[in-house]
Amino acid sequence: ASSNGLEECLKLLRGERDEQRLAGLLLATKFCQGDDKDSVIKVFNAMGIRFLDRLLMTGIGKSTGNIPNKDQQEAYLQLALTIFAAFCRVPELASLDDVISKVPIILEILSNKPEQSVSVECCECLLEIATASEKGFLALYEARALHTVATHVYHSPADSQSIQLAMRLMQFLLAKKPANIDISEYADQLAAMAVAIARLFAIQQTLLKFDALLVMSTLIASEYSAPIRNSLKLSSRDTAWPTYVRSGIATILQNRIVAYQKHLALVLAESMMEMFGEDWLIGPMELPREDGAVPSDRCLFLVLETTRVEVSVLINELARLKFEYSNNGISSLEEVTIRQRNLANCYALVENIIRLISNACERQDNYISESSMIKATIALNETVGVVIDFLLDAKAHDMTKGDDLLASVRVICRYLAETPSAYQIQFQQLLPYILIISGQNEERPFLSIQFLLPTLCQTTMDPDGCNVLVSCGGHKQVLEFLSILLEDVSEETIGTVLIACDTIMNILLKRDDIQARLLVDDFISVLPALAAWAAKQNDSTEIAMASSICTLALDLSSENSLSKIPKFQIQSLSTVSELIIRSLELFQRAEKSEILGDDHDLYDIIVSGCTCLMARYPSIRQAIGLSSWFQNVLQNR
Question: Which InterPro entries match (predicted)?
Fold first, then answer.
């Protein structure tokens, strides 16, 4: 009977009159359900695309003949979409040119017909065409489907059945974005879509929540998110959307989920902190099925605890892949790369949380309670301990190159710069090794020293810290690092230059307490560069610091001894002399105006240093001795 019914349907579809074909289409809806591809293909071949095209045009009021009333139009449109969706579910049909050519009209219907039944069919048709063939996929881009679908999601109610299909379509379009497509053209619409999906992400408790997570991650945390983020920052749309994202992430992390979804949530959290700062982790949340107020630090601790566990898991897996299996050729490059990428994101989260806790301690405004800060510090300390063990393991296996090693150095040093008393013994053991770690694309260690500097600046305030650094020759690497930085100092690097100078100052000031002997040879290469840089500065502290380092370093030797060192150019002493004179002039002016800044101690170092240098450096004695400023300083002091 079913076979006879299909034949009757096909006969009507092949009829010459529209009435016959329309009757055939109504019958066809019974045979175009389920997985009966053969019946669908037979219906398509019998009817062709032209009649369906006419029906679609009539349904949207663009018929060339008599336009039926509104109810009939809607009935024709629904019938046409139902049949067209059935065709699109068959990949062989969805990839045909005749079917692909209908993409513009389907997008037009989606824009103009908000009815749920219509929008569901439209989104399904578009998704099937996009996934069936490359040609269909490109047709959607050419018809600006991103714009239309994003706008549809923004204007649809949260319970709309079409949203899930629309999000899957958007995810597919974004994931396979052609290189020639400029995403900034769609930034405003995609930003609006992100705002709409953020609310779904917070309130949905179905599988749709994970679809929302995937799309939000693509919109906010992918390689082409920059224009979308900019639009979100400038937008006056729903300002609660960052709260929705925080709520959604918290809900996901407090449940048992697969590793992929967990890392996706962490990536999204890190991207939100890039946009809004680490304080974004703290704030109100709207969590379904929660009675009473949710603590404002709930998301912080869920992210921190998840990150702590993931760092431990990822480091153990990386250690196994790199250290145990590498010699056997078992480890896969792809496996290692995925874990390194996930670990890098976890490290970024750890650094953000370290900064959050540090800032909260400085503000002392109860933004985070004392008990919460203690709890967070314990978790951070445990995490850093795991990272230190990873580096000790890498050291034992003589591995010194790798971005994962470099990232581990960065996160350890970020923590120790805030808590220099932590892991002192382990840090001292690791320091010589850290100094030779380089990134995968670095020719020699550079970034590892940059990451170390804030910690070294803290540890060298103590003689033991100076001893550890000098005994392994680390001070030479800091000096070499500073020489490279001084070649081109910018607003981005000036802070690092000053930290390096502070570290060198600490070492020079504690030279009498250092067991290893400091040699002037180690410092002479940086002195001309330091003096030349300071000569271009207007900041009195920067000038005084450079001058202090020069006087302290020269005090390690004499002009006669320096003249015997081939790599030292004796004319450099005149550059240093000019710097010292300028420093003294600035100090004299400050004393006259009775406005002494924070650099007063530096001028004490310079004056006492000059007094010592004049006996051993004739050229400096001559240059400074001619300065009435210096004579005045000596008399006044």
Answer: ARM-type_fold, Neurochondrin
Asked if residue 627 lies in contact with residue 582, where contact means CB atoms within 8 angstroms, the answer is: no
Name the 3-class secondary structure at 401: strand
Q: Which two tokens stand for residue 113?
A: 């017909």
User: In this model, does residue 320 exceed pLDDT 50?
Assistant: yes
Query: Nearest Cα to 125, choosing from 161, 73, 87?
Result: 87
pLDDT tier at 1 (50, 70, 90 boundaries)?
A: very low
CA 285 from centre of chain: 23
CA 484 to chain centre: 27
Please, which residues bridge with residue 401 across strands? 438
Q: Are 130 and 140 in contact (CB under 8 A)?
A: yes
Q: What CA–CA distance (Å, rounded) separates 18 from 31?
A: 20
Q: What is the DSSP string of 349-398?
A: HHHHHHHHHHHHHHH-SSSS-HHHHHHHHHHHHHHHHHHHHHHHHHHHTT
**pLDDT tens digits along 441-486:** 999 999 999 999 999 999 999 999 999 999 999 999 999 999 999 9
Rounded to an integer, what distance in angstroms lies between the CA atom of residue 620 and that of residue 612?
11
Whole-angstrom distance, CA of residue 123 vs CA of residue 129: 10
Given phi > 0 = left and psi -120 to 50 = alpha, else beta, which region is 283?
A: left
* pLDDT over threshold 80, residue 215: yes
Residues 6+ apart with CB under 8 A from 390: 315, 318, 319, 408
Residue type, 488: D
Q: What is the DSSP letter of 513?
A: G
